[in-house]
Amino acid sequence: MPTVGIISDTHGRISDDALEALSNVDHIIHAGDIGAQSVLLELEALAPTTAVLGNNDIYTDYGPGVKDHAVRTIGGVRLFVSHYPKDAERAADSGEYDLAIHGHTHVPRDEMRGDCRIINPGGAFRPRGGSKRSIAIVELEDGKVGPVRTVLV
Fold first, then answer.
1. Which end of the chain is more exposed for a tag (fewer CB within 10 A), N or C?
2. Apex CA 114: angle with CA 4 and CA 49, to 5°?
3. pLDDT for 94-145, tens place per residue?
4. Is the dihedral of CA 42, 43, 47, 48 positive or negative?
5. Strand order in the sheet with 144-152
């Protein structure tokens, strides 16, 4: 059963608490506003990492694997990743995915839309809406999205 750590909106900074929380996951998703290549290097040192571009990443080249969205299958679960909520919602509505992930709002989100779960881990830096800095940890097994934990970082 793979465990996936989801982080977003680091804006060039990643706390020791976030790194510790992600230290035992099998895969990491960064949902945009990375802010610095060093953030990706730290995440990739922990686990294979999938990252997408956010609105603050437009002037930084993170390499050919980091684009405006990503599609992966992990543990039989079909994932769509984008920085923007509307993209994740469209992906959820398409019926093609089991899990749609986004960032951008800096506010945690965990909801079902049809048969697709939508997750925003919240902001790892500069949380909004009264939330605290956070990431999400999710278990994936046999094509199903298991428990999701929000971890304060």
1. N
2. 20
3. 999 999 999 999 999 999 999 999 999 999 998 888 889 999 999 998 889 9
4. negative
5. 49-51, 27-30, 3-7, 134-141, 144-152
And the tokens for 38?
Answer: 């060093």
Domains of the chain: 3-152 (3.60.21.10)
Mean pLDDT to the nearest integer, 69-78: 97
β partners of residue 112: 117
* Residues contacting residue 60 through CB under 8 Å, at least 6 positions apart: 34, 35, 36, 37
Phi, psi dihedral angles at 106 (to 5 degrees): 65, 20
pLDDT at 60 over 90: no
Rounded Cα distance between 61 and 48, Å, is 19
Which letter, b or e, does each residue of 14-53 get, where b requires 16 or more Cβ atoms within 10 Å of its Cβ?
beeebeebbeebebbbbbbbbbbeebbebbeebbebbbbb
Token code pair at residue 121: 């881990």
pLDDT band at 75 (very low <50, low <70, confident <90, very high): very high
